[in-house]
């Protein structure tokens, strides 16, 4: 694909839109792939790992990327995005008195080293807890999927070959947010995309811009998968899945002015007029549609006297007697019997189905729908496995997160019946926790873990269920000798990233540099593709 730039963005990087940490893009890890990736829901999957150090039984805010917290991007950030550094303040007064440095560095293409160093500059021993949170996030919570009968062909609404508005738009040459003209994003449409006009026009009410189809002469072009003569020979008919939308209010003050002056908008009303479309190109004729605010499937009888297949593949739909707008989900081609049996069902993408089991290397987290498996291998410390059945880490009770005791395992359970459990967003976070990290006065403590993308997804024997001692105290971590520790430390070279900067402001410049480099997210939609993009979407 021309214009790709995969070398700028590795598969591992600080791409999360929600929490600071390290993320992996399984679609970008496949051989030969490059950005932009086709904008399917599977390609938009993002695996997130959040490391959360805290004092025992304390309130440590989650490292949310959109709100203020005690976690900040820090100096050891590489320009290629592979080495990432955060610093957590641990709530013992000024930030330098007690903190934790969380670093990520690549070991190879598929493995990342996680190094957490607790620093205690106080005069008392600190009892610390370390949480690893793992999840798979998707671009949407749910989308519609088409269940097509054998032989039925589909043309997605977003795959149009050109759209024309009878009244030109000022932005016809450059669409807002780098989208494609006439493409809308909505989970009610097949695979999350459809055809229509949802670009806001509130700021230019004097132009009288209406949704697509509401003015005679609006048109859209599609390429059919087979020539018209073949469709005729097979006895195929044409079906349209669509919904009508009301005309927009025009004239008067702009939407921004209405909001500022407290003027409520007039609720749009569907006109009780039967809309009609003209066909030309691969098929010719005219047909009428019903006014329906819900997506509906209309099967057109191509043997009707008003409709007929012609030649070629290019099909043009042009509005005729329309007093409402139109949004098109897809075109279907097939026999009447097959088209009547096609259905469209909502499919939940979140929470992503996950299988978790203890293996010899640590904790294995498998996401079969995305074909992605990860293994977290903690070293030198016992760990326990917990789950949070929510996509929002703030739904967990802080005092449960900071206490590794097994009686605190239900992370989202309130401590009384006064408040319900929170379910702010569908999702599942796998939590691997280690406790009893005692940091002496004026001392340090370091914990290591390796996170691996298991590319081959080979069958691995699960460990026996935890006995009562492992349930209470945790499973022992992998052994860590001095040689391996030295190898791990080599992944974090102690070099000045901005050696020419004045010493008195070097750290501040390094922090600013790290903040700018980490201000990147995935997925961002642009012109039917997913990209990683530096954006103000983090740390507003």
Based on the model shown, name its key terms.
540 residues; mainly beta; Beta-galactosidase, Chain A, domain 5; Jelly Rolls; six-stranded antiparallel sheet; 8 helices; disordered N terminus
Written overview of the protein:
- With 540 residues, the protein is mainly beta.
- The chain has two domains: 6-139 and 355-534, Beta-galactosidase, Chain A, domain 5 (Distorted Sandwich), CATH 2.70.98; 143-347, Jelly Rolls (Sandwich), CATH 2.60.120.260.
- It has eight helices and 31 strands.
- The strands form seven sheets. It has an eight-stranded antiparallel beta sheet with strand order 5-6-7-8-29-26-25-24. The chain has a six-stranded antiparallel beta sheet with strand order 1-2-4-9-28-27.
- It starts with 11 loop residues before the first strand and ends in a 6-residue tail after the last strand.
- The relative contact order is 0.18.
């Amino acid at each position: 694909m021309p214009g790709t730039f995969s070398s700028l963005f590795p598969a591992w990087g600080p791409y999360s839109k929600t929490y600071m940490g390290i993320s992996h893009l399984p679609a970008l890890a496949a051989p030969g792939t490059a950005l932009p990736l086709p904008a399917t829901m599977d390609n938009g999957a993002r695996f997130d790992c959040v490391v959360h150090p805290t004092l025992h039984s304390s309130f440590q805010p989650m490292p949310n990327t959109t709100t203020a917290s005690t976690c900040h991007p820090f100096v050891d950030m590489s320009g290629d995005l592979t080495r990432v550094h955060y610093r957590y303040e641990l709530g013992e007064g000024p930030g330098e008195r007690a903190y934790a440095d969380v670093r990520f560095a690549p070991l190879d293409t598929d493995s990342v080293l996680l190094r957490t160093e607790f620093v205690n500059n106080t005069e008392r021993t600190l009892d610390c807890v370390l949480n690893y949170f793992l999840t798979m996030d998707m671009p949407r919570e749910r989308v519609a999927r088409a269940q097509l009968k054998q032989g039925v062909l589909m043309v997605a609404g977003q795959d149009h070959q050109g759209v024309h508005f009878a009244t030109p738009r000022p932005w016809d040459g450059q669409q807002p947010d780098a989208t494609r003209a006439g493409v809308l994003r909505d989970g009610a449409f097949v695979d999350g995309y459809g055809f229509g006009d949802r670009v806001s026009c509130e700021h230019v009410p004097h132009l009288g811009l209406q949704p697509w189809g509401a003015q005679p002469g609006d048109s859209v072009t599609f390429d059919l998968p087979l020539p018209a003569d073949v469709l005729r020979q097979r006895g195929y008919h044409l079906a349209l899945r669509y919904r009508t939308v009301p005309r927009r209010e025009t004239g008067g003050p702009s939407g921004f002015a209405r909001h500022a002056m407290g003027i409520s908008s007039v609720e749009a009303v569907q006109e009780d007029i039967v809309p009609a479309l003209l066909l030309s190109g691969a098929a010719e004729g005219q047909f009428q549609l019903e006014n329906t605010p819900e997506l509906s499937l209309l099967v057109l009888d191509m043997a009707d006297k008003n409709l007929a297949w012609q030649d070629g593949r290019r099909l043009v739909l042009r509005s005729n007697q329309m007093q409402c707008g139109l949004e098109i989900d897809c075109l279907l081609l097939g026999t009447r019997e097959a088209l009547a049996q096609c259905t469209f069902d909502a499919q939940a993408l979140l929470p992503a189905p996950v299988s978790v089991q203890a293996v010899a290397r640590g904790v294995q987290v498998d996401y079969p729908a995305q074909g992605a498996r990860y293994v977290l291998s903690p070293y030198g410390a016992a760990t326990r496995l917990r789950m949070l059945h929510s996509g929002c880490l703030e739904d967990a009770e802080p005092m449960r997160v900071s206490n590794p005791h097994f009686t605190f395992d239900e992370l989202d359970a309130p401590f009384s019946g006064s408040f319900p459990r929170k379910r702010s967003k569908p999702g599942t976070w796998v939590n691997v926790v280690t406790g009893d990290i005692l940091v002496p006065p004026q001392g340090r403590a370091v914990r290591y873990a390796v996170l691996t993308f298991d590319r081959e997804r080979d069958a691995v024997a699960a460990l026996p269920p935890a006995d009562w001692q492992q349930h209470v105290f945790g499973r022992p971590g992998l052994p860590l000798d001095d040689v391996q520790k030295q190898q791990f430390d080599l992944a974090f070279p102690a070099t000045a990233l901005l050696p020419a900067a004045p010493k008195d402001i070097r750290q501040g410049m390094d922090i600013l540099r790290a903040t700018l480099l980490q201000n990147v997210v995935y997925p961002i939609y642009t012109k039917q593709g997913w990209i990683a993009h530096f954006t103000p979407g983090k740390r507003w």
